[in-house]
Specification:
Elements: H1 10-19, E1 24-28, H2 39-45, H3 49-52, H4 63-67, H5 70-81, E2 83-91, E3 97-108, E4 114-123, H6 125-147, E5 151-156, H7 167-173, H8 177-180, H9 191-196, H10 198-209, E6 211-219, E7 225-236, E8 242-251, H11 253-295, H12 302-332, E9 340-343, H13 344-361, E10 365-369, E11 376-379, H14 381-397, E12 404-412, E13 415-422, H15 456-466, E14 470-474, E15 482-489, E16 513-517, H16 521-533, E17 537-541, H17 544-554, E18 558-561, H18 570-579, E19 587-592, H19 597-606, E20 610-613, H20 618-625
Parallel strand pairs: 10-12, 16-17, 16-18, 18-19, 19-20
Antiparallel strand pairs: 1-4, 2-3, 3-4, 5-8, 6-7, 7-8, 9-11, 12-13, 13-15, 14-15
Amino acid sequence: MEGADKPVDPLIYRMMVEQVRDYALFVLDPSGHILTWNAGARRLKGYAAEEIIGRHFSVFYAPEAVDRGWPAEELRLATREGRFEDEGWRVRKDGSRFWANVVLTALRDDGGKLIGFSKITRDLTERKRQEEALRQAEERFRLLIEGVVDYAVYMLDPDGIITSWNAGAQRIKGYGRDEIIGCHVSAFYTDEDVDAGRPWEELARARREGRAEDEGWRVRKDGKRFWARVVLSALYDAEGRLRGFAKVTQDLSGRRQIQDLEKAARNVNEFIATLAHQLRNPLAPIRSAVEVMARMAGDDPNHETLRATIERQSAQLARIVDDLIDIARLTRGTLRIERAPVELAQALQRAAETAAPLIEAGKHRLEIDLPSQGLVVEGDLHRLTQLLANLLNNAARYTAPGGRITVQGAREGGWASIQVRDTGRGIEPQLLERIFDMFVQGRAALERVGGGLGVGLALARRIAEAHGGTLAAHSAGEGKGAEFTLRLPLHDKAKMPAPPARAEPATTVAAKRVLVVDDNIDAAATLELLLKSLGHDTCAAYDGHQALRLADEFDPDVVLLDIGMPGLDGYEVARRLRALKRERPMRIVAITGWGQDADRRRSREAGFDVHLVKPVDPTLLTRVIGNNGPTVH
């Protein structure tokens, strides 16, 4: 193109340099003295050309920079490398400072001789001010975060690695900054949650949705758990790239404890009301039967019917008392398991016999399907029977009349699995775990079918766990039935011992001299009547002192002694009886409502031979008096 190679007039270059106002453009000689000056230099630095040309460029530097020889160092670096760029404070004519970006370029002739330097200076004070304001804001925020002690606030990189740590995190989680930075966030999760992949699920949810919230158990450095509320936020840069996560954790253990206490209080209140209701149920027919028997002739054929009613209802009262005892054992963690090879078919047969009254009352159909090779576990036959009976009773209680209860057993690797299904009312999703809490039932008290204290499922799960197994519930929802799955480890070398021969109760027992001691006159009188009907010679005492006197006068073979008496209690009476010098042996039997392990231990230490808990089975009592029964402690 015409004129493309025509050189630009040097005058134009000079005019351009002189008239630029946004940059200070000037030339230095090789020693650093100013040779030229443009309009931008005058505006930026405040000097007119006649004031500054010929002076050394160090005039623009702060005294501390001059003292350390920085202007000369800039010339040296530009001379050696051809170019030098720097940012720092510079000084105007009026003494004010500004933040400058400086580019110093060495100028050489065609022979390579240094003839001077060009210098370009930009005023970046506003940018510097903004950066400093941002830095100070970030520093204030950092100090604020690091000073927070009520919340754990820390940062993660995109992979979940911890990159920052505040005082609250150290207080709540127990780790020092140097111990935890660089570790993965999964360090704070329980083993169960780690195995289930929850830490990575939360990171994925925050990455996908921008934020993830959760409440659950977390773990401190010392291994202790705490209940935490966690908020995880994804952090993206301006281009939308994930830079990491911010995590805030709050320790809600105190609030959780209060909620648990409130729930326990509600459950206990409901339990007390339920207990009163359950106690009145059997007491009502017992009282009615007694009233009717008092008005009828001795040979009335209805006597046997009424007697059977009293027996059944008394057995129900005994079951309620047994439940209360198990509640105490669970609370104290003293539920004992006697281990031996157990065939689950045997436990299930006994459980079905126990649950038969409720199943028959509801006209339910019970179907049992167990593998032919058997399911042998190592455990306690009595407790496993209790567990399965509780599951069957629960199914019968919450299934409408005419329902179906199915029990299916299977081998699953090294585990025995028992599933109990029903066609009942089902379990609401929010109750699937709560039904295993103590005193919790699945419907309001007035709606319950067949009653119960609300401890059966809690006890069943504790028994399963004591055997190294699990008990879980599943339901498709309201009206769709429920399924309970029991899993127990199989017994490896399962050779079942022959069942012990059942000891038959003695049909006749030699007459004994029996001293009955009880401060409850009615209890003592009825026990005397029972013993006399069995052919024994009896005498009754109603306090400890009277018992000691009659023991000397009556000279009994057996003393049936209550423990909880006012004044001289049963323990002290037993000790004093043992101190008597007698020619004939005397058996001392505790007949008491106190049946805890500590009570049995104290009775043994006081000299009792046998410890029986009210109400006592007449067959067992006959064997004990006849000296054929076991020494029960």
